[in-house]
Amino acid sequence: MERTADATLKTFDYVVAGSGLAGLSVALRAARYGRVAIVTKSWVRESNSYYAQGGIAAVTDEGDSPEEHRADTLTAGRGLCDWDAVDVLVHEAPECIHELIESGMHFDHIDGSLALGLEGGHHHRRILHAGGDATGALVTSFLAKKVAEHPNIEIFENHVVLELVMRSGACWGLSTWDVTAECEQLFIARHTFLTIGGTSAIYSRTTNPSTTVGDGIAIAWRVGCPIVDFEFIQFHPTALFAGENAFLISEAVRGEGAHLLNEKGERFMAEKYPLAELEPRDTVARAIANEISKSSLPCVWLDLQHLDAKRILDRFPTIARHCAELGYDLTKRIPVAPAAHYMVGGVRTNLYGETGIPNLYVCGELASTGIMGANRLASNSLIECLVFGRRAVEQTRIVPTLSLPTEFQPLYTINSARSDEYLQARRTVSELLSEYVGIVRSADSLATAREKLAALEADFAHRYHDASSEFYAHAIENLLIVARLLIEGADFRKETRGGHYRSDFPEQREEFAFHTVQVRGKAIDKKPVQARAQEAR
Questions:
Q1: What is residue 210's predicted lDDT score, i.e. its pLDDT?
Q2: Which residues contact 173 (CB under 8 A, 6 or more apart)?
């Protein structure tokens, strides 16, 4: 049965799409300056922030320094980090942590001092955590409670963002689909924030919640935002291997001394790599994939038998409990394999979350601030949300405030019978990307991916040519856009660097030390890496 959308219109000073850490922190700060709407597919628990186990990276110890945090970030980024962005992150991170603690957030302590963890790529213990391995859940829940209690903030759950409301080249809010009422709803605002996460759930094996399939990328790309470095999808090296389950096993487990063993029981990282199991994620993921390719098993083993069992259970209660539910003992050894985890690239922004489109800001995993380079340093993602979310909101205070347009028309309809078609399209795209654009890529695999995607696109154009404003057709088109951008980015970068591994170009190549840029209606291009500080903090 098809119905016509009966859109309602709501007006705010700020509209924030997404309820992960970036969205929550943006909403709380924006509420100091006006009325705020948060629109979200599902509240808090369905965000990457909520499931983040490792912690938040920030310099809080006297023996550490922002310069050392910066050095670790630059090393992990494999030559593609923008200096100014990293400099902002490492110097403003401690202040954001202090502000969070002052507002009542409690991080784990040992003997009265912050308990600091060590993760891959870090040379100092600088990872703050809460509840052992429940940092993301506790921080987002803490902020969510404050958001829910704030009189200037309204929360709209079960709302899927359809598109940005554009007038004269500027953004004036969001068009959303109210899943419960099955109608379009418009949120008009002077300042619009997209914080709707990454795209890793578009792969078959992923640590992400099912909602993170790259909608934000497609939405921003449609209005002309540059999509940068999209070929870099970070595969977390250690996700529990239990059939289709890809439960994240935090980097911090290896930080506490866990070993990776191959099928023969050998530590394959120890002699070959200086930091052994604590190498950056791209190195560890590829090493594991290589061992699996030589093995009769689809996984390797994460071994903790040599560690103090009580310490492990106290430090990682959530992971231990989940493993036990599936029949594994975390204090012994567990099967792990890489899984799609984090979108390293994203929508290009400046140091204040601005996209180049007036009134539109992007924060969190969806943004490409220049920090992550080719490979995100562990636990930099949550602190990026706090640092750049704060900067973006404060930037809204100094940009000109224009009068809101008043004429808006609903566009979208729904045909519920097409929901099964969307699910099938999602499975097909996931299988395509997992097989041909996964942790190992090549010219041949990418050519096959392009051919198969072209067939899907042609079928879509034939079957939905008169339904561009139908909800499920729109969702399918988003999947195809994201897949196309991934394939084109991976094909353009003919080298191996960070999270992008080309078996036909296995070495990092200096001539590819640039950002890839994809803009609607233009050929893929490149942008220089900003290597030296040019803007005062």
A1: 86
A2: 15, 164, 165, 186, 187, 188, 189, 192
Helix, strand, coil share of the chain (percent; to 5): 35, 25, 40
Type of residue at 411: L
Per-residue pLDDT band at 87 (split at 50, 70, 90) = very high
State the residue for tokens 């985890």: 341
Q: Which helix (DSSP H) or strand (DSSP E) does residue 385 occupy?
A: helix 380-395
Beta carbons of 423 and 431 less than 8 angstroms apart: no
User: Strand order in 367-368's β-sheet?
Assistant: 367-368, 346-348, 227-228, 514-518, 525-528
Of residues 512, 497, 491, the one with CA closest to residue 445: 491
Q: Measuring CA to CA, which residue among 222, 201, 223 is closest to residue 213? A: 201
Spatial distance between the Cα atoms of 224 and 163, rounded to a whole number of angstroms: 12
Angle between helices 471-492 and 215-222 (to 10 degrees): 90
Cβ neighbours for 192, distance < 8 A, ≥ 6 positions apart? 14, 15, 17, 164, 171, 172, 173, 174, 359, 360, 361
Alpha-carbon separation of residue 261 from 54, 176, 189, 269, 330 (angstroms)? 22, 47, 53, 8, 14
Q: Other C-beta atoms within 10 Å of 513: how many?
A: 17
Rg of the chain taking only CA atoms, in angstroms:
22
- Round the average pLDDT of the chain to a whole number and report it: 90
Whether the Cβ atoms of residue 518 and residue 226 lie closer than 8 Å to each other: yes
Pull the structure tokens for residue 59: 């310099």
Using CA atoms, how far apart are residues 344 and 375, in angstroms rounded to an integer? 7
Q: Which of 281, 315, 348, 441 is catalytic?
A: 281
Tell me: pLDDT of 45 over 60: no
Is the Cβ–Cβ distance between 359 and 194 less than 8 Å?
no
Cα 523 vs. chain centroid, distance in angstroms? 25
d(CA 371, CA 96): 17
484 is catalytic: no
Write down the pLDDT at residue 53. 56
pTM of the model: 0.91
Asked whether 38 and 213 are in contact (CB, 8 A), the reply is no
Is the torsion defined by CA of 402, 405, 410, 411 positive or negative? negative
Read off the pLDDT of residues 393-448 as tens digits, 9 standing for 90 and up. Answer: 999 998 776 667 667 777 788 888 789 999 999 999 999 999 999 999 999 999 99
Buried b (16+ CB within 10 A) or exposed e, 13-51: bbbbbbbbbbbbbbbbbbbeeebbbbbbbbbbebbbbbb
Q: What's the average model confidence in pLDDT over 147-175?
A: 94
Can you give 233-301 as a three-state secondary structure string? EEEEEEEECECCECCECCHHHHHCCCEEECCCCCECCCCCCCCHHHCCHHHHHHHHHHHHHCCCCCCEE
Q: Are 4 and 123 in contact (CB under 8 A)?
A: no
Q: Which amino acid is at 115?
A: A
